[in-house]
Write a structure and sequence with these properties.
CATH superfamily of the largest domain: Ribonuclease H-like superfamily/Ribonuclease H
Number of helices: 14
Structural class: alpha+beta
Domain Transposase IS4-like: 181-406
Pfam family, one: DDE_Tnp_1
Helix content: 25-40%
Radius of gyration: 26 Å
Distance between the termini: 26 Å
CATH architecture of the largest domain: 2-Layer Sandwich
CATH class of the largest domain: Alpha Beta
Low-confidence stretches: 1-18, 426-430
Number of strands: 12
Shape: elongated
Domain Transposase InsH N-terminal: 14-103
Protein name: Transposase IS4 family protein
Number of domains: 3
Mean pLDDT: 86
InterPro entries: Transposase_11, Transposase_InsH_N
Length: 430
């Protein structure tokens, strides 16, 4: 818990009903920042202490909580708001240079912020028994404050030498059956997230340049969770992601290594107009890229979709049973009249523990939108739509702090028996 060096007499009881400072109170009281503060104070040594470390830290947290897009915006708020200065522990408004030096110090201690994030995830796991059972993965485009790569590659503090161009393609089907495609391009970075889809809170993250592949970073996220939160991987039951993470190695890893059922949409990768493939070992059974299995009647040649009979964990198969109550003239001579077991190994991209064409798969896939809502809160409630950040190191610090603030607010709500307000990041709920 942060120590708040108060310079004027005030009470949280007087402030909280107004709602403006409640979120800051939650962050200051529930953010596990003691170790970081002690380390920063030790690093400062016996130099000048015009602006104490904790006061600078508290004011930076206030800037995130109150959605200030820049340090200058925060300094203007501190200049006019004596009460906020008092809460942060400041006698005067720090100079822009003081914030620059403090931010550089934070960038040298980025691992401490990651540790703080891990502590918050662990604390929420202890408070919420179901936290981490249903996971969702996605990435978020974050444009750099710079609009394009600099011509001059020499570092001067103003150029962004780290950002790269990125692109994400979105596809869908209209009501009339026609397809649409939208390509979003930007110059900047990517925030890769794994969130708890039930509570819509982050559990793992990385920040990369904009060109980084979602699939490759998906493996990195699993590596990070295995290292930092192995207990959560054991608890997790489902991992949901869009088709950007469609990769046989990633799907196999989820189930084979962690026992997590992947619910990841497929890309259409079959070439030359190929619609179906023959199921190995069978003469009248085919499957399509969406995971549906069909049988052909030996008598008439009519094709029928086989119903899904569930998943047999010990066999590693999905079991489409006989067709949906449809009479088949060639049933007596059909080799799959009683159903067919389909090993996952036939195609790990297509055949998964939860059958793709099942109602359960569709229901689980809807939880993927939890990541989109977390991303939206980062834009709207934490100012990523109008930030002034340049450079990968600064972006990593800023993303880490925002996610820590989000978790600290949620943890405070839970501990104060206000779980229904966990997602209230913008203002108090009366």
């Amino acid at each position: 818990m942060a120590i708040i060096p108060q310079l004027e007499l005030f009470s949280w009881e007087e402030i909280e009903p107004l709602g403006d400072l409640e979120r800051l109170r939650l962050v200051l009281e529930h953010l596990p920042d003691e170790a970081l503060m002690a380390h920063l104070e030790k690093s400062r040594g016996h130099g000048r202490d015009d602006y104490p470390v904790r006061a600078m830290w508290n004011s930076m947290l206030a800037g995130i909580v109150f959605q200030h897009p820049s340090i200058e915006s925060l300094r203007r708020e501190l200049s006019r708001n004596g009460q906020l200065r008092s809460i942060c522990g400041l006698r005067a408004v720090p100079s822009a240079a003081a914030y620059t030096r403090f931010l550089r110090s934070l960038m040298r201690h980025g691992s401490w912020i990651e540790s703080m994030f891990d502590e918050l995830v662990k604390a929420l796991s202890e408070e919420l028994p179901d936290f981490g059972r249903r996971l969702a993965m996605d990435s978020k485009a974050i444009a750099s404050w710079a609009s394009r790569p600099p011509k001059e590659k020499k570092e001067d503090g103003r150029r962004d030498l780290d950002a790269e161009y990125g692109a994400k393609t979105y596809r869908g089907t209209r009501e009339d059956g026609s397809t649409w495609e939208k390509v979003v391009r930007w110059f900047g970075y990517k925030l890769h997230l794994v969130v708890d889809a039930q509570h819509e809170l982050p559990v793992a993250y990385t920040v990369t340049k904009g060109s980084r592949s979602d699939v490759k970073e998906g493996h990195v996220l699993l590596d990070e969770m295995e290292k930092r939160h192995p207990e959560m991987l054991k608890k997790a039951e489902v991992l949901t992601a869009d088709r950007g993470y469609d990769d046989s190695k990633l799907l196999s890893r989820c189930w084979d290594e962690y026992g997590i059922k992947p619910v990841i949409d497929t890309r259409r990768m079959w070439k030359d107009g190929e619609q179906t493939r023959l199921l190995p070992g069978h003469t009248n059974v085919v499957y399509d890229e969406g995971g549906a299995v069909y049988c052909y009647c030996p008598e008439t040649g009519a094709r029928q979709q086989m119903s899904n009979g569930g998943f047999e964990k010990d066999r590693g198969t999905v079991c489409p049973a006989k067709a949906y109550g449809i009479t088949c003239q060639g049933r007596e001579q059909c080799p799959v009249a009683g159903g067919v077991r389909v090993p996952l190994a036939v195609d790990r991209r297509i055949f998964t523990p939860i059958a793709r064409e099942s109602y359960k798969w569709a229901k689980e896939y809807r939880y993927r939108t939890a990541v989109e809502r977390v991303n939206s809160r980062l834009d709207v409630s934490f100012g990523f739509e109008r930030h002034t950040i340049r450079g990968l190191a600064k972006m990593r610090i800023r993303c880490g702090l925002a996610l820590c603030v989000m978790l600290a607010m949620a943890l405070g709500r839970v501990r104060e028996k206000q779980q229904e307000r966990m997602r209230s990041l913008v203002r108090s709920v009366s």
